[in-house]
Design a protein that fits this description.
By secondary structure, this protein is of the alpha/beta class. The chain is about 40% helix and about 15% strand.
Amino acid sequence: MTDFCKRLPPPPFKIKVIEPIKMITRQERKMILENASYNIFNIPAEKVFIDLLTDSGTSAMSDYQWAGIMLGDEAYAQCKNFFNLEKIVQEITGYKYVIPTHQGRAAENLICYALDLNETKMVISNQFFDTTLANIETSGAKTRELVISEAFNTSINLDFKGNMNIQLLENIIRKNNNVAMILLTITNNTGGGQPVSMHNISEVSKIAKKHKIPFFFDAARFAENSYFIKLREKNYENFKPREIAKKMFSYADGCLMSAKKDGLVNIGGFIGLNNEELARKIKERMVVVEGFPTYGGLAGRDLEALARGLLEVLEEDYLSYRYQQLQYLGKGLEHKNVPILIPIGGHSVNIDVRKFLPHIPQSEFPGWSLTLVLYELYGIRAVEIGSVMFAHKQEDGTWRFPPLDLVRLALPRRVYSQEHLNYIIDSIGELYENRDKIKGIKMIYDPGILRHFTAKFQPII
């Protein structure tokens, strides 16, 4: 039992439906890893005891959302649930055009098409996440990440580590007349779920407007970013999260949304924007690749669940509990001396792999190795955000590794209890005490783009 004494407040909900989970034996887990080619994405979910692989699409929906599902209008075109979603997104964001998609990567793909991204163009972000980067790079466009330098120091406790470097942004735009879009990720997933301040958002907006560059949010975790602004930024402590969100969105020309995060749903997304011509191009393309523009690859019931989830995610008692859950998990790991990225993020706690496993070189993918051992010993599935996910092979065959090597413990929304968190804390604490026994791995199959989903590995004996 963990000796970390801080307790969570009672959650602002009660349990109505449960899903059984089962702890299988370590020997079974060893066989599963071998059959999965040592790729944690290939592990059957029913063989996982606690699943921290992602917070995307893993939320528990409320009775209000499930009630909405029963009101699904499955008409092919112009279903009533679309208009409910449109109204709520317009109220939250202020954007005129609302275009549903089946998930975030579809929204990314559509905006790349609408902006005619190609080899001559560039997209700038604080940091891109995996599918966003893949969509832009497959279009041929160049990318630049301009997050502040402090983001790469896991030990610096800075309120808004997701901020973009404003001076660098201005300099890059002055030297390049081919910037097709600025995409600000809120919160910054690649950097450990770190928020972006309202001041930084407004500064990015000024530069985008001055140079007439489209400015969009990757808004998958917009509610969590809003809550961080309320907690940490001067003059916002008395604002409601919904008011803060509306102000954030007012600075941008639009947003791309994976609603599987802060939409509190298991599938869905949308594009919000004010530009009529962009909206027209996206809708025309949607008919070919996603479906009719009022359903975007989703059933009417999914649209209704999303509309209701967007209202629930901005409730302050929910956001407060969500924040405290992550703080509890992170502080508990710190109590066990486990090196984590600070401050603790909005959707995940991130282990600093270079400090956890300094004896394993990046060429042997220490973060990936850590996820394998964590599953084998304790039945916990996490994900590496580092060398496998973001490394690139250079022309001479050597690897160019990213500046951060993290193992992300992504906490599903409204799913796990304090007892589950205690188990995670104790397990990783015990693993840290025996970290010298962990060995690296080698990649035996590299698919290239989004390699972490399908790559194959072998342990180094």
